[in-house]
Amino acid sequence: MANGTRADLRELFHRGQLTIGISELSKMTGVSPRQLRYWQKKGYIIPKNEDEPGQARIYTMKMVIKAAAMSNLLQTGYTLKAAAAQVDERMRPAQTMYHVLVDRYQGYEVADDGQILVDLGPFDPQPDQELYAKLVGDRVTFELKTVSKTDE
């Protein structure tokens, strides 16, 4: 079987991998750089490099999405504080899913029949078994595999 590693997923979904500067963020969202700096001062958006004073601000895709969504809500009559709170609430499910995937994903295997088995690590109630997910048609199914002594 071919294998993928946990690092594969982390590299693919690494939070800070795709970044843009404040002028690009302004162009993408229609929000002026001055306004974006104000949003940052209020803590509604956070540049990736906030701990590097004097450096040009760079933003992750998460902040791009947040700024764009806040801008849209402001145009519909929300206050800045309410828009930021609404966007944070709407982003919670995606953030939860991100953490579940990154925390549980151990790698993948390609079985001899070409089926991709996603290793989700030890099955908590039975740590001697690993939980795998696979796609069967359009449906995700799960299976447990006993960890053999040679797999450890």
UniProtKB/TrEMBL annotation:
* Molecular function GO labels: DNA binding; DNA-binding transcription factor activity
Recorded hits in SUPFAM superfamilies, A to Z, give:
Putative DNA-binding domain
| Entries under CDD domains matching the protein | HTH_GlnR-like
Keyword Repressor found? yes
Q: Which Pfam families does the entry link to?
A: MerR_1 (PF13411)
UniProt keywords (A-Z) are: DNA-binding, Repressor, Transcription, Transcription regulation
| HTH merR-type domain sequence ranges | 19-89
The record's listing under SMART domains reads: HTH_MERR (SM00422)
- Report which superkingdom the organism of origin falls in: Bacteria
Do you know which PANTHER family this protein is assigned to? Answer: MERR-FAMILY TRANSCRIPTIONAL REGULATOR, REDOX-CYCLING DRUG-SENSING TRANSCRIPTIONAL ACTIVATOR SOXR
Identify this protein by name.
Answer: MerR family transcriptional regulator
